[in-house]
Amino acid sequence: MTKVRMGLAGTLGSLMAGSMGAYFGLRENEDIDPVTSVLNLNSSRTSRRGRCMVRTTSSTTLGQDKEYGEFLKQSGDAKASIATACLQKFPEINKEYEDVTVEVMADSYGKYIVSQVKITGSYIGSSSSG
C-alpha cells in the first residue's frame, strides 16, 4: 500500500511540475533558441498582455513599444540578446496584466544593445491600502 501511495504522490508531483512549467512558459526541450521561445510566447497569448515588447531609445528620444516579432522583422536580434533578456524576466510577470519591455539603444554600428529590462503594465488586482 505504501508503494502505491508513493507512486501516486510522485505522479501527482510530476504533473504539477509540468503544469507549472507550462504556465510559466518554460520548455522541457532546452535546445529551442531564445528567439523561437519568445515568438512562441507572443503568438500563444489570447490577451493583450504577457508579451515581450521592445522599445528603441536614444539619448534624445523614447521610442514606442513594438512586439518582439515586429522588431525582429525590422531590425533583427543577431545574438538573441533581446530575446534572452526577455526570457530571463518573463517568470516574474503577471501574464494577465503585465508585459516584459526590453529597452534597447542602437550603437554606432547599427546594432542594438539592451539597456534596461522592465515589467510594464498594471496589476489591477493589487491594492496598496494595507
Description:
By secondary structure, the protein is an alpha+beta fold. It folds into two domains: 1-31; 33-130, no CATH class. Helix content is 38%, strand content 24%. It has four helices and four strands. The protein has helices spanning 2-23, 34-43, 68-75, 81-89, and strands at residues 52-57, 62-67, 98-106, 112-121. Strands 2-1-3-4 form a four-stranded mixed β-sheet.
In short:
This protein is of the alpha+beta class and 130 residues long. Helix content is 38%, strand content 24%.
Which SSEs are present, and which pair or pack?
Elements: H1 2-23, H2 34-43, E1 52-57, E2 62-67, H3 68-75, H4 81-89, E3 98-106, E4 112-121
Helix pairs in contact: 2-4
Keywords:
130 residues, alpha+beta, 2 domains, 4 helices, 38% helix, 24% strand, globular
The portion of residues assigned to helices is 25-40%
Query: What sequence of helices (H) and strands (E) makes up the elements?
Result: HHEEHHEE
**Low-confidence segments, ≥5 residues, pLDDT <50?**
125-130
Helix/strand structural class: alpha+beta
Give the end-to-end Cα distance, rounded to a whole number of Å. 48 Å
Radius of gyration: 18 Å
What percentage of amino acids are in beta strands? Answer: 15-25%
- For the largest sheet, list the strands in their spatial order: 2-1-3-4
Oligomeric state of the chains present here: single chain
Morphology: globular
Q: Main β-sheet: number of strands, strand sense, barrel status?
A: 4 strands, mixed
